[in-house]
């Protein structure tokens, strides 16, 4: 077994890459200490994580979480929602296939493609708003607030049929769900308010069904005629609200930071010598929007790359670490390089998952981020950070990986092009 001293996960978040490099230097699997002194493990190596995510003796169901099953995890534990929310992320086998099939019937490629014109129109409106905010703020505006957040939040809420009055509340609650540094009372209150808010959305759609995903999920049946149960429905909506905007919010934010810090790479994009989609993929690899995702559990004692992972241990998927694993991505893995794909040196990253639980919303996230980056920098090619990168406050989570604000100067331009 790996004899390394357990790494204490930083509940306050912070940039993960220095700690990830230390963990990778010790091996591909690391013992960790979760909030509340709960022992766990993290799989940080690319190949080990790829195998772990598809291992037949690894499960997602909370019944396999030994400490939870034994009553040693309190109700207000900040990561409890990840373990217990009903839905695809905590289901296995036939149950997972049933739930994913029901969601897939409503969340189809056609629906995503139909969203493109609305994503493009929303992006244009948000860029107008970003320009106005900068003009009113001595040339500085918070790009996260004016573009990176409202684009995916507005899109997923439109897809789900969530009224505008719930948007800000759902983002606030989503931020609390993924936070790892809040107390038990706040955790409990946030989960209760989230369930109540989504319950109100479901009730409204039941009373007046529309052409939206919530209505489709309410009506959807699998091959056996089963509908989603009430808990599964609320859990599925929670997953889609959180994953449907928090991930893309971080992705767009991280991509803008990366391109501002690597003007040579931005120049390739603006000159048409590289594709915006490649910038999205390199950001996903180099600065994954999700750093350590909870949880999977070995259903038996499992040895992974020489390290014993005991049955029932909560295991984090270390996406941000795997993205910079030199064994997979080469000796320059820590370098941001959008030409990897064109040069044929890119190894497919794992930042949107792998295997049966691969992110169902990946095509939508990629589309939103690609449109946002292209339109943003085409309109504001001189855009740059308004403060030093090191001074940007980090999101308070080791699950999410980004910064809480992104003040930028737009530079020249501003008129719609």
Automatic annotation (TrEMBL):
Signal sequence interval, chain numbering: none
Annotated family: Belongs to the cytochrome P450 family.
Protein name: Cytochrome P450
Source organism (scientific name): Streptomyces lavendulocolor
